What does this fold into?
Amino acid sequence: MLQKEYWRTKLSPADQKTYDLIRAGLASQRERTAIPTFSGDPNGILPIYQAIWNDHPELYWQTYAPGVAQAASSFGGLFGSGGAPRFEVIHPTLYQPKETASINASIRNVLAKLDALKAQPKIDQIIAAILHLAKHVTYEINNEKNQNAASALYFGRAQCTGYAKAFKLMMDHLGIPCILVSGSAMAREGDPSSMGPHAWNLVELDGACYHLDTTAVAGNVDDREDILASLLFLGKDGDFEKNHVWDRKSIPACPNHSPYRATKIIPSPGAGMPSKPDDASVTQISSLYELRMLLAREFASEKTCTFAFRMNMSLPTEKLHPHVMSSIQAALNQAKKSSSVETTCQGTLYQLTRTVSP
It folds into this structure.
């Protein structure tokens, strides 16, 4: 769904060749790249360059807007043998080689810390990346160098694109599908006059895609519970369309928010929860297979439903919970009717309310 070099896949085969040439030039930190594969309006190079900007946060020295020039050819002025002008993309680097050596070392150190999480559930890896940004990055505007991964992971100051690129770089390292989304958002909720350019992420988890406004979430959380409570963490289109605008044709739809985000972990049974784990209304589950079968039966209904189950397994609760939530997500994705799920959890006791979309 969110394949590697996602934005490259949106280009024509000819433009993909130009993309590859410019990417190679940027990777070598050259300041000019000849692109004999391109012909036509020079402005057509800009969307190609933007696709690289979105796909490759590791090229943090990439400037936002390149220059485009017609280059003199050794075979006769501006034109090659086919009579088409020869173009060069001018992309001066934001950082010099001496700087990039220090920046690379710092970024490698951040990514190495994430390596210890690779055996953990992906939701825990995502939350760890958000918490790193929340702890180490300060939001700062009006700085040309605040729109890349190095601004966040090395300098500790970033604007929205810097946050989103740093998060994508971490997700790429962890093998979690993630893309950068460019659009607009309101700085003040419900105030259209505060609408301005904005960048955030789309993340693929358990076979479904979700919006994640990395800047808003990382800038307003202190711990895991804060993240899970945020409407802008693993949210659906309906959550984001209230304050965000984007090209819906360019990215996959996100009809549901993630059940992880909807989970309410409570210290004692709340209103409507079974008062005892062995209540007759609670289905006793002794394996993940049994859980998947229960979810498949309940989600086969085309009506809203509420049901409870207790996990009777030897795994510690903190290790079992991500597996339960992943099973819920998988069942939600496979359900014939589009729906959302609110999950309440108290220890190993779970109550789900599934709401079927009209």
In short: The domain at 97-258 is CATH 3.10.620 (C8orf32 fold). The two ends are 26 Å apart (CA to CA). The chain is about 35% helix and 20% strand.
